[in-house]
Amino acid sequence: MIHVSSLTKRYGALVAVDDVSFDVAPGELFVLLGPNGAGKTTTVEILEGLRKADDGTTIVLDAPAGSRAISSSVGVMPQESDLYAGIKTAEALRLFASFYDDPEDPDALMERFDLDRVRKTNYRRLSGGEKRRLSLAIAIVGRPKVVFLDEPTAGMDVEGRATTWSIVDELKQRGTTIMLTTHLLDEAERVADRVGILHRGKLVALGSPSQLTSGRSTELTFSGDADVDTEALGAAIGARVARAAKGVYRVANMPPTPRLVSDVTKWFASRDLLVRRLDVGPRSLEEFYLEVTR
Ligand SMILES: Nc1ncnc2c1ncn2[C@@H]1O[C@H](COP(=O)(O)OP(=O)(O)OP(=O)(O)O)[C@@H](O)[C@H]1O
Ligand SMILES: [Mg+2]
Hints:
The protein is of the alpha/beta class. Helix content is 32%, strand content 26%. It has two domains: 2-213, Rossmann fold, CATH 3.40.50.300; 221-282.
């Protein structure tokens, strides 16, 4: 549904997107990650037809990105958006719905996004999170085949985020192809079929969350009381024990073997202490992300 090959975008001397290639399959949920300024918005806005590439090929729905022929099949929630200050919530959503042949019911969408209460409020009076909710509602009102969501949950409260992820899930069930950016790595890991990580314009990783986090060296982490004697434990097991957070520890520079796990639990037992949680699982996406973007 989306094909990007050798995409490059320069702003003067800055190469904001540097020879980036990836594909997004029909019905796939593709998440683009990367630090501030990595080139996510630039990439997404080129695919939406809002910016022009300097080099490379960008195809969306079998047509060059931004062609008029596909515009009614593409939904967009920009990172920053603005509407006419005096338009009311309900008017805005009805207006956008009127651009499509078979739109969603604007009233149902307003209810879904908890925008009922502000249906008669002028756009400029909406709170930041309400504007984001309206922007997402506008992105999906035309039942698009492909949706681009640029940091959809930024600025939303807990409930807004939950609604957003459940809408994303519904779009996916319907077969919609979704490309989104976010800084929430745990949510990305949970929802993404595939992830791309941009770093200074370059695509430094591409794959499913499990591909990116498996096959890597894992380490033993465990939690216990806040005052575990890490020196004594380290001496007993022959490795350095570091404090990762309050009451959370990790054994540095030593892969978790059955022997190590047993040594750690034995040490706790010898002091009549409980290990609350012991984890030898694969790295989280966040750990992998920090590794490739540092
Ligand atoms: N129109 C422009 N003119 C000059 N530089 C630009 C322009 N648009 C973007 N840039 C620069 O290109 C780089 C990539 O910006 P982009 O907005 O794509 O990053 P991003 O990954 O979306 O970051 P964020 O997480 O902060 O949204 C940044 O260094 C930015 O300053
Ligand atoms: Mg951005």
